[in-house]
């Protein structure tokens, strides 16, 4: 029992998470003092709402977190945070939700992310962030930050020019993003065209997660053109929300037949009809399909090289093209990307 208590004590010494509203300057000062005086603190996750400028300044002056999350809205907060990005060599993950930030706030934050000393590898941004100006600053980060590996964006109705600017950064030869996660109403035909261009040109990008609301058939067709391009390097594809109409399923099936690198496919679908599933399965059972792991709404459809009898249509013949292995449930769950609560789709 004593040993167990010691383990718990060590856990709370090394791992710390604060969430909620830190409203007073005095309380913020005490919290910051803990960060400054505890040399054993290794993992710190701050998820703080309604930060005023002084609170942000105090936290940034004393804390050395690995993960920082919260709501940023003012240029002053952005300035303090940028200073952390330049000076904190231990920060690896940054999670921020923005409340109607002005362009200056994003510019200051991106200045910090552009700094050669910035060590952030995972960047997660949510809220109303992608104005044209904000997107331009973020694209510059994607071109200049050589440590950044994962980008997650929860977007609210970005226009075509905004997505074009973002994709200019993603397809730049110096962009090092390997995992891209996009959520929200992002896939118009125009934005899909820009994203497809990223899939053709970014040879580092191998994991793509899309959680989309009601994309039209043309948008999915254009996206799948990118997925089936010979230069597309995507190995893991996860699609969620109401994406699979009959027409969309036909385009996806064609991508499954022609993309020789795709190994894992995860689909979260709402009430697909029989024809939609039939078309999808036509692609999956094609001899050239290289899918090794398949999940539908959290359940495995292919296991040990055999189709389970849980599909919505008659189980097709075994995929002769290469169902070579199946990751265990625990393994796949650990690899799936989970958004924090404040990154859920709006």
Q: What attributes characterize this protein structure?
A:
disordered C terminus; Leucine-rich repeat, LRR (right-handed beta-alpha superhelix); two-stranded antiparallel sheet; twelve-stranded mixed sheet; disordered N terminus; 14 strands; alpha/beta; elongated; 346 residues
Descriptive overview:
- With 346 residues, this protein is an alpha/beta fold.
- It has a domain at 88-309: Leucine-rich repeat, LRR (right-handed beta-alpha superhelix) (Alpha-Beta Horseshoe).
- 40% of the residues lie in helices and 20% in strands.
- The chain contains twelve helices and 14 strands.
- It has helices spanning 2-14, 25-37, 53-62, 75-87, 103-114, 132-144, 160-170, 189-201, 217-227, 246-258, 274-284, 329-335, and strands at 15-21, 43-49, 67-72, 93-98, 122-127, 150-155, 179-184, 207-212, 236-240, 264-268, 293-296, 299-300, 302-303, 306-307.
- The strands form two sheets. The chain has a twelve-stranded mixed β-sheet. A two-stranded antiparallel ribbon has the order 13-14.
- α4 runs parallel beside α5 (103-114) and α7 packs parallel to α8.
- The termini are far apart.
- 41% of the residues are buried.
